[in-house]
Amino acid sequence: MISEQKIFYDYLETRRLKRTAQRDLILDMFLKIEKHVTPEELYQSIRKKYPHIGFSTVYRTLKLLVNCGLAREVKTAGDNSTFFEHQYDHPHHDHLVCQGCGKMAEFFDKAIEDLQEKIARAHGFKMTGHRLEITGLCKTCQDKGGAE
Amino acid sequence: MISEQKIFYDYLETRRLKRTAQRDLILDMFLKIEKHVTPEELYQSIRKKYPHIGFSTVYRTLKLLVNCGLAREVKTAGDNSTFFEHQYDHPHHDHLVCQGCGKMAEFFDKAIEDLQEKIARAHGFKMTGHRLEITGLCKTCQDKGGAE
DNA sequence: GTATCTGCAAAACTTTTGCTTATTT
DNA sequence: AAATAAGCAAAAGTTTTGCAGATAC
């Protein structure tokens, strides 16, 4: 079993980057977060335990987590802040969202995953993640005859 | 046939908003753009024809276009600026984003589109749209090793 | 005439950077 | 001892807002 900590420490070692108390703490706090988090939110949580930490340290460490594959950045329309979320925690579920009532279903489809890999490769990319959201109308909202 | 102009003008009328030369021009320029555009880029193009236009006017009008369904906002990891793109410009394209340098490629894959329809149907949804973003590392960033 | 819009500038907010001191290796 | 990181503050970049004068209705 490969732990996230090990991935991070190996990453640091490979690049001759240093393991510090702050980086350890930031990784731990990040891993404890169940869902996505903004840099500001993470900064605020960490300050409670470690009041002298700097925002830039948190920010720079989040970028490290992205670079070593533990986190990914997510930006959403309607929110100007970047979210960081676990890359490996919920590796394979995508969302189906009802425009009428907001109901959300999760799904996983191997064929789509494979096609994504293929497309990335065709463009010279090494795929590290993806985000797929299908919007539609659920049964109930279709029956109600169209939503706003 | 419903023109984008008509959609916009109807939207304005319904809400007792005013039709102005600037709004007309911004819509026209936006419709001429083939791909996504940042507010800044659109502002710069418009200034060439209409030097006194204000950035806020462009920005506010883009939001109007989103609200009336003609445009949508797209934000990508690796780029801090919001892109605006046509909402009704089928076939939709999806994005491939490099986590290292923010470089963005567009693609369209019929097989993926079809699978999405199928999945939505399997969950009792009627699909109305989707958003797919594949993140990865482009050739250049793979070679550089992804370091900051 | 009234309500809305424009353009400007400033504010608000997010992300990045420069630099000095501190820490890790 | 040398190299890197932390923390701070300031800069840079993006989005939003307040307002006086202009324009559409």
Could you explain how this protein is built, in words?
The structure is a homodimer of 148-residue chains. Chain A is α+β, with helices and mostly antiparallel strands and 148 residues long. Chain A folds into two domains: 90 residues, Orthogonal Bundle (Arc Repressor Mutant, subunit A), CATH 1.10.10.10; 57 residues, Ferric-uptake regulator, C-terminal dimerisarion domain (Dna Ligase, domain 1). The first copy, chain A, contains six helices and five strands, in the order ααααββββαβα. In chain A, the strands form two sheets. In chain A, strands 4-3-5 form a three-stranded mixed beta sheet. The first copy, chain A, has a two-stranded antiparallel sheet with strand order 1-2. In chain A, helix 2 packs across helix 4 and helix 3 crosses helix 4. Chain A starts with a helix and ends in a 5-residue tail after the last helix. The relative contact order of chain A is 0.12. The mean pLDDT of chain A is 82. The interface between A and B is large, with 44 and 42 residues.
Question: Brief overview, please?
Answer:
Chain A is of the alpha+beta class and 148 residues long. The first copy, chain A, has helices spanning 4-14, 21-32, 39-49, 55-67, 110-122, 139-143; strands at 71-74, 83-86, 94-98, 104-107, 126-137.
